[in-house]
Specification:
Elements lengths: L2 H53 L2 H21 L4 H18 L5 H17 L7 H12 L10 H14 L4 H13 L3 H12 L8 H17 L2
Helix pairs in contact: 1-2, 1-3, 2-3, 3-4, 3-5, 4-5, 5-6, 5-7, 6-7, 7-8, 7-9, 8-9
Length: 224
């Protein structure tokens, strides 16, 4: 091969590399922007959820959660592969079910279950395994067959899985302790709840942490 041919081949290879680098630089900001949009949506949902859950009068919570759920669905429509958004949709819908109460809440709990199962299918460790925590809570709080889908065995499995992913998290520890109390295992429940009280604070989740710690105190008082 002549020197001219080798130079031409190297030039073509160099041009291809430059093109690929340029293509990557074009794609990366878009992917980054999408991640930023999802992160912003998650922050919006979790902040508003905490305000409704812990700072809104009980009579207004169900409507507040319903409006927030519609916002979550809009975000999901824009980012259908974001497990984090499905998690928060499930949390919001299950919170609405709790605020509404009664048999009329069962359909909301089923929607929450569907959203959380979708999150697990997409990314089961998203948000430190929060889908497992929220599904576990649903399984022990919802009535069992023939009324609902409640299942203590599934609740236990889900909550234990959540703790393997996030062993020091305030939410999985709280719900595990609450579940153990519901099962009559108060000594183990106290251990989990006391550990939950010592869980690290979460940046940007101050309202949620404060509200959750108050719930933990109430559960501990009930064990006295």
């Amino acid at each position: 091969m002549s020197a001219t041919s080798r130079m031409a081949r190297h030039a073509r290879r160099y041009a291809t590399i430059i093109f690929l680098i340029g293509l990557t630089s074009m794609l990366t900001p878009t992917a980054s922007a999408m991640r930023d949009t999802v992160a912003g949506g998650v922050h919006e949902l979790q902040s508003r959820w905490a305000q409704i859950q812990y700072q809104t009068p009980e009579r207004r919570r169900a409507d507040g959660f319903d409006q927030l759920y519609q916002r979550a669905r809009a975000l999901i429509d824009a980012h259908p592969d974001a497990a984090e958004l499905y998690i928060w949709a499930g949390i919001i819908r299950s919170s609405e079910a709790g605020a509404k109460g009664g048999l009329g809440a069962l359909s909301l709990a089923k929607e929450a279950k569907s959203d959380l199962e979708k999150a697990l299918a997409l990314d089961d460790i998203a948000l430190d395994g929060s889908a497992y925590t929220s599904l576990g809570a649903l399984y022990y709080q919802v009535p069992g067959w023939p009324i609902g889908f409640g299942d203590d065995d599934k609740a236990k499995a889900m909550l234990q899985k959540a703790l393997t992913i996030d062993p020091d998290g305030i939410d999985p520890l709280y719900f595990w302790g609450d579940f153990l109390h519901a099962q009559g295992h108060d000594a183990a429940a106290r251990q989990a709840l006391e550990k939950a009280m010592k869980a690290p604070s979460r940046s940007g989740r101050e309202t949620a942490d404060q509200g959750r710690r108050e719930q933990i105190r109430q559960r501990l008082d009930a064990l006295e």
